[in-house]
Amino acid sequence: MTQNTEPHAIQGAPSYIELGVEDADRARAFYGALFGWRMNGAAGPGQASTGGLNIGIHDHDPSSLLEVFFTVHDLDSAIAKVAELGGRIVGDIHAESAEFGRWVECDDDQGVRFGLRQPAG
Predict the structure, then answer these.
(1) How many other C-beta atoms lie within 10 A of the C-beta of residue 58?
(2) Between 84 and 8, where is the model more confident?
(3) Does the pLDDT value for residue 27 go beyond 60?
(4) Which InterPro entries match (predicted)?
(5) What residues pair up with 105 in beta bridges, in sequence order?
(6) Are 73 and 15 in contact (CB under 8 A)?
(7) Is the distance from CB of 15 to CB of 52 less than 8 angstroms?
(8) Helices and strands of the chain, counted as H and E runs
(9) Mean pLDDT of the residues in the chain
């Protein structure tokens, strides 16, 4: 199953997970063996198919985190709402890509990291 990139995706539904680790190959080995995830490519950063949400794996990330991205229909409105509720935007708003759409990382009002993603189209 592939990630849901449909414009009619459910608002607020988890739609992607990003796994940031120091060593992508170690993460591939660990999670592949633990859960049977199918990995794309032979090594390094990439993506794992879980049969549900896809999980992007990137390396050289000292924060070592699993970050859930939530689908929104209007990224700009969602960003404004995050600020209104006491959260904050972390980093840049990323331009739309054909595969992933527009996205941004956020912290909630307690500092918990999550992402917002407006699917392409």
Answers:
(1) 15
(2) 84
(3) yes
(4) Anthracycline_SecMetBiosynth, Glyas_Bleomycin-R_OHBP_Dase, Glyoxy/Ble-like_N, VOC_core
(5) 90, 115
(6) no
(7) no
(8) 2, 8
(9) 85
Instruction: Read off the pLDDT of each residue in 14-30 and give the average, rounded to a whole number.
Output: 89
Q: How many residues appear in the chain? A: 121
Q: What is the pTM of this model?
A: 0.75
Report the CATH superfamily, name and number, of domain 14-118. 2,3-Dihydroxybiphenyl 1,2-Dioxygenase, domain 1 (3.10.180.10)
Q: Report yes or no: 55 and 47 within 8 Å, Cβ to Cβ.
A: yes
Q: What is the largest CA-CA distance in the chain?
A: 43
SS3 breakdown of the chain: % helix, strand, coil, rounded to 5?
A: 20, 40, 40
Residue 102 pLDDT: 96
Task: Spell out the long-range contacts of 81-90 with Cβ–Cβ below 8 A and sequence spacing 24 or more.
Answer: 82/106, 82/108, 82/116, 85/109
Q: What is the pLDDT of residue 6?
A: 47
Closest CA to 59 of 94, 25, 104: 25
Task: Kindly state the tokens that stand for 12.
Answer: 């607020």
| pLDDT tens profile 81-110 | 999 999 999 989 999 888 889 999 999 988
